[in-house]
Every structure is written in structure tokens, then in C-alpha cells.
Write a structure and sequence with these properties.
about 220 residues; class I DNA-(apurinic or apyrimidinic site) endonuclease activity; 4Fe-4S; hydrolase; DNA_glycosylase; DNA repair
Length: about 220
């Protein structure tokens, strides 16, 4: 794929979603880390409903470790895998207090060592909280990248990230991450992508395939 095609894709998504941003509600790096941790296999909308009360009750790592684990579990029970996530949050806060003076580290290498924090979470935190360019590959970014041919169908999440980092200008990594999420969440959906009105249909292998299949089906029905 040449650079002109990539530029066309980035500009089209940018025109559709110029104000794309992190939709997880937070007011600092600590809250963002907790929110992203909670968002694994869960929608941002559900996380935001839970964190409205959670962030009023717990403002510091000390607040989380001061309550029994069972109480924290109840506070986030509407979140999928809430028991494991409560344990991760508790252990993460303990480590922050023991090693980082209760502050979220700004270095990616340190973030990924925190309980419950993987590469995707670390990328979201460094880019949104600390202004470090990064591309976090969630389910939307992965789906859009593969449908558009920016990555291979069998590529791992890490391979998708590396390919995007090569093809997208570094100063656009974070913005591209947000725009691809919005594009995947609101337009190029998993089950019902809006191919028929997509400005990228001309360069989307998945879209062309879907439209061709739909046309063949209509042709058979007419017969």
C-alpha cells in the first residue's frame, strides 16, 4: 500500500470524525488508568456509568487499598470480570504506593509492569495523559486496520500496531488511534458496517467484497 492511499484513508476518517477523542471519563492519569483497566471486554459507556460513583469514592491509591477487596468488587460489579479487575486495581494501587509514591509512572516500560496494565492500556495512558505519541490497538482499530488492508487478516495485535506505526506519521499516531476507534465504533461496525455510504469503499477490500456479495444476492432475487 502506497503512502498516498494511507493519506487518503487518514484524511477521510479525519473528515468524518475531526473531534475524535478518548471517551472514557477521567480527570487525571490515575483515573484514566483505572478506567482503561475496567474497559477490557466492556464498553466505554458501561465503564463511564460505573466510574461516576467510583471516582467520587476513590480518589487516590490509598482509598482503594483502605477498603476490603469485597467492597471494591461490589462497587464495580456491573463491569465484566469485576472480581479479577478489582484484584488488579488493588494490587496496582499497592505497587504505586510502594514504588511510585502513589503516582502513575509516565514511562511505557514501567506502566506495562503494573497489575492489569497491558500494552494497549499503557499506550492509551502515555498518549492521553502524558502526550507521548502512541497507537493503542483495541478491537475497533484492529478490525478497521484489517478491513482496509493496513494490516494482514492474521496479524497479531502487536503486528497491527507495528504496521500502523510505520505507515502513519508519528505526530498523528494518537489522533489516528482516536479516529480509527470512532470510525470502527460508529461507522465500520463489526456486524453492520455502512459500506454503501463509506468514503473509503474504493480502497477497502472488505467493503468491496461485501458490496459484491450484496449485489449478487439482489441479482439472484430479481431472477
Amino acid at each position: 500500500m502506497n503512502s498516498a492511499t494511507v493519506r487518503h484513508m487518514l484524511d477521510a476518517m479525519g473528515a468524518m470524525f475531526p473531534d475524535a477523542h478518548c471517551e472514557l471519563h477521567h480527570s487525571n492519569a490515575f483515573e484514566l488508568t483505572i478506567a482503561v483497566l475496567l474497559s477490557a471486554q466492556c464498553t466505554d459507556a458501561t465503564v463511564n456509568k460505573v466510574t461516576i460513583d467510583l471516582f467520587k469514592k476513590y480518589k487516590t491509591p490509598q482509598d482503594y487499598v483502605a477498603v476490603p477487596l469485597e467492597e471494591l468488587e461490589q462497587d464495580i460489579r456491573r463491569i465484566g470480570l469485576f472480581r479479577n479487575k478489582a484484584k488488579h486495581i488493588h494490587n496496582l494501587c499497592l505497587l504505586l504506593l510502594e514504588k511510585y509514591q502513589g503516582q502513575i509512572p509516565s514511562e511505557h516500560d514501567q506502566l506495562v509492569l503494573l497489575p492489569g496494565v497491558g500494552r494497549k492500556t499503557a499506550n492509551v495512558v502515555v498518549s492521553n495523559a502524558f502526550g507521548v505519541p502512541a497507537i493503542a490497538v483495541d478491537t475497533h482499530v484492529e478490525r478497521v486496520s484489517k478491513r482496509l488492508g493496513l494490516a494482514g487478516w492474521k496479524d497479531s495485535v502487536l503486528e497491527v500496531e507495528r504496521k500502523l506505526m510505520k505507515k502513519v506519521p508519528k505526530d498523528e499516531w494518537t489522533l489516528t488511534h482516536h479516529r480509527m476507534i470512532f470510525f470502527g465504533r460508529y461507522h465500520c461496525k463489526a456486524q453492520s458496517p455502512q459500506c454503501q455510504v463509506c468514503p473509503l469503499l474504493d480502497v477497502c477490500r472488505e467493503g468491496r467484497k461485501r458490496m459484491k456479495t450484496a449485489q449478487l444476492r439482489e441479482h439472484r432475487e430479481v431472477k
